[in-house]
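Recall that a protein's primary structure is simply its ordered list of amino acids. Everything else, from secondary elements to tertiary packing, is in principle encoded there. The following example makes that idea concrete.
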Amino acid sequence: MKSKNINLKNDIPIFPLSNFIVFPKSTVPLNIFEPRYLQMVNDCMSSDRIIGIVQPRKTGELNKPDLYDIGCACKITSFNETEDGRYIILIEGVSRFLIRKEKKTDKLYRTFEVDFHKFDYDLNDLEEKKENIDLNYILKELKQLFKSKGYSIDWKNLKNQSSYEIINSLSMASPFTIEEKQTLLEASDMFSRKKIFEDILKMYTVTSFTNRTIQ
């Protein structure tokens, strides 16, 4: 499956990253220091630069936890090695995938057979992704939520992004639970993600209002 010269294979190395979910078209830095993931990055840099970011579940073994079924394949777009042997990489979300099964290898890291077909939406250059959808409610309520929690975000950077990129970036940066973010990740398209985002925000708004009323 190809999109913009990106060839996604059906088996990819997986990075189970706790409390962190990456969305398509979102860019984030990672600090790599564990030997198994240093090996993973080395292997990726000599091939297609694709790694899968998946949220681990709270079940399974400590060093081999069970994983959520859906994650995001990311491309390493920047690589730097520090003097103490760590890697500082920049990754960009490309497409979600569905985990099929784990593969047996002699690597320190885990590799899985995955399926991208369910998420053609992420790879296709659809016209609807370029549409400007109404995000005023989300932006207004999210700013209040960030303020109440003492979080900060560079809102100016959002101005040059499409609605698709904005809703994905906000889904990743939001102070929601991991389970809520996983639900957002699994939404079929940006319209579904926007609707789910608004529903989650409304729950936070109600909770905040109830707490203020009790006080």
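Strands lie at 2-3, 6-7, 11-16, 27-32, 50-54, 56-60, 65-67, 70-81, 87-103, 110-115. The chain has two domains: 2-123, 127-214.
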